[in-house]
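Structure representation.

___
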Amino acid sequence: MWIDTHCHLDAREFDDDRDTVVAQAHAAGVNHIVVPAVARWNFDTVRTLVHRNAGCSYALGIHPIHAAQASDDDLVELRRQVAASMDDPRFVAIGEIGLDFFIPNFDVERQNAVFRAQLRIAREFDLPVLMHVRKSQDQVRSAAAKAGVRGIAHAFNGSPDQAHHFVDSGFKLGFGGVFTFSRANRVRRLAAEMPIEAIVLETDAPDLAPAWLADDQFSEQVGTRNTPAEVARIANAMAQLRGMSIEALAEQARRNTIEAIPRLASLLPR
């Protein structure tokens, strides 16, 4: 019934029980998990993990946090692996890519160079992008629009105007555990008021745990592990917030996700 559009299943937090985590997600009604790469060193890891687990797909990309260390050879290798993966039905997108202006002293120029190179790859292969947009919503949307690509703005927490600009550019907005906190006023407003056609669900596991896994505060809970199974409860919270049935949300979220990531259509159960 549910799709986790963004889960770092390869993270070390899952090393001891990864198979159990996937089984628990499926048991909770999470039929599919999209696993994005973050750097050249985990391209093969993500691909292998996904092929070992039913109901999973993967994206290839270089996360902005790793952009400063990414060489031009890494970008060449990314393009090579994307080209080689196009016949793999479980390969569905370019990601996680984008810009991050939250952490100080990052090399903005290199972030931009790596980001734009990956947008060109996405455009070349007609693939959607899974976008990291932390404190960079306007810059990411502008670059993506110029490149002519679409996809998902992951963990979206910008303003209503920025949200509408992304949607007008053909993007879906990813909502996960953050909106479940009562103090997350802006994200909760977006989750409640944006057109339902704009919304997809995610966890960003093992990060961004929802309120029921953390203290009753809106803050990052160090050591609190999120898992893809939580998409089911996140969906319930979304349905309650919007005053809609869980069945209607499930159908719309599935439709939205396929619109954002068309290659998923052949992988999802009917």
Q: What stands out?
A: The chain has a mean pLDDT of 95. The CA atoms of residues 53 and 118 lie 27 Å apart.
